[in-house]
Amino acid sequence: MLRAVFLITGLTFMLTGLYLYFLPPAVAALLGVAPLWLARVAGGVVLAWGASTLAGSARPDVLRTGALVGGNLLVVASLVAPVIATGSALPATARPVLLGVAALLSVLAIAAVLAFPSRRRRGL
Hints:
This protein is an all-alpha fold.
């Protein structure tokens, strides 16, 4: 289960990073992203984060799982706060997408915490 959480989180970040990296100018104008190079840099960072998470799925440990949970919850906080504060200013399709990504990452963070083996099950 823990490896599945890592894989789903990594794929989510990689797909988001690729989308941001190749963000069409029409979508960037609709969302108010200017300059466009900022979206490209953010896409590269998110893509690298997703690749790192996928690599961490091979041998999840305490540090990697803590980083996964912490990273997911930080992204959730970063997405939900602006949606709540300026939700009406966002395009109609952006609000549900951002809330959906936040919900997915929240569920994955909780699943990682619950799926991490206890000390007894790890043999410590």
